[in-house]
Amino acid sequence: MPAKRWTPSRYSALLRTRGPRSVQFRTRAAILTGAILVGVLATLFAEAADRAALVFGGYAQRWHWLPLLTTPLGFMALVWLTRRYAPFARGSGIPQVIAAQADPDAATHSLISPGTVGAKAVLTIGAVLSGASVGREGPTVQIAAAVMGLTHRLVRVPLRGGVVIAGGAAGVAAAFNTPLAGLMFAIEELASAYEQRVTLLVLAAIVIAGMVAQSVQGDYIYFGAIGAHLPLLSALLVTPVAGIVGGMAGGLFSRTLLAMALGRNRITGWTRANPVKFAGACGVIVALLGVFTGLTWGTGYSAARAMIVGVDAPLWFGPAKFAATAATAIAGLPGGIFAPSLAVGAGVGNLLRELFPGDPASAVVILGMVAYFTGVVRAPLTAVIILSETTASRGLMLPMFATAFIADAASRWVCREKLYHGLSKTFAMPAIPKESTAPRPPAA
Prior knowledge:
Elements: H1 8-18, H2 23-62, H3 67-85, H4 94-100, H5 104-107, H6 114-129, H7 137-155, H8 161-176, H9 179-190, H10 200-217, H11 232-262, H12 266-273, H13 275-293, H14 301-308, H15 317-331, H16 338-355, H17 361-377, H18 380-391, H19 397-414, H20 419-423
Helix pairs in contact: 2-6, 2-7, 2-8, 2-10, 3-6, 3-13, 4-8, 6-7, 7-8, 8-9, 8-10, 9-10, 9-18, 11-15, 11-16, 11-17, 11-19, 13-15, 14-16, 15-16, 16-17, 17-18, 17-19, 18-19
């Protein structure tokens, strides 16, 4: 069979279908460029959030009692600003990305617009400066999805739901410096309610974002190289207890948030009618816990890491951090719950240490973190990968998997609906008006 000859017409056709001006080429360029930008922006946002946390930490130490006034006022101001200027910026950011998949192109004008995520970043930093129990990971997911939307708009190609998934998951990969966890989050959490095919290009975008963040931030491990392990007999005893206790506690947290967001009763009616006053009341709770414990401010990273490495911590830390995080989340401030949930999970693990004093403290605490995080997010594979990558405890993988699956089942007993998918129902996208080409009917 004679070989096909390259003619000018065939070359022109190839350029149209696969050249720099083709939809295929522009789509790939938009995704890969977006992935690089996500890695850079996630790093900058992380640096800003960490510096804000240090500023508040110094302020709270120097003016010990003043947060009793400034934290509630900060909560009220942030909720007012959010509702007035950026209503789609409230809360974590992950529910917005889930809701955006229904109509990605329309969402680039609302849920994941540049204006929304710009306000989200500023308001989240404000929440950290107020002492709120928030993390930067959820907002990073929303920011990353918006970056993907922006790159697609710039090159004028349609935005697909799978790319929104990739953007959000790339945010997780970059925020925790864990590319593999980003992949799991895309498949398990963001895409679980939608029949989306995650293509090789989408997966590549997640990995690229994580690798860019890693190259900028350095090859660091989020909680440090712990390398925890647990003997088989001990694992058989600790795993079911950690899974049930942590899973049910995480389910209780999710049920509380969903009840406040979706419930129809006198309490929720009052909170919706008086959102700023309610935020102030939540701020009082967070301030009281922070001032009298000194440990529940912010993400709780330092306390969590101390417990992971075996430092004795007060048994009340877990319940106190749970209350501070719940109060912050239901107040309606912009900010995520990933990092605070890991801190609460460390508190759960710290409680479990009392039941298993002869077992390695680090391993028990990590299993508590896996169980509680799974109970909240209901993504067991993501929980295991995040904790294995952020602690370098790959020798604990089997007990972590068992704990996560038990926790997932235990969480279902308390709260049937997944947290982020339930919260996504509160984000209805406004219709984008389109100019009609049909002739107008004559005036009556």
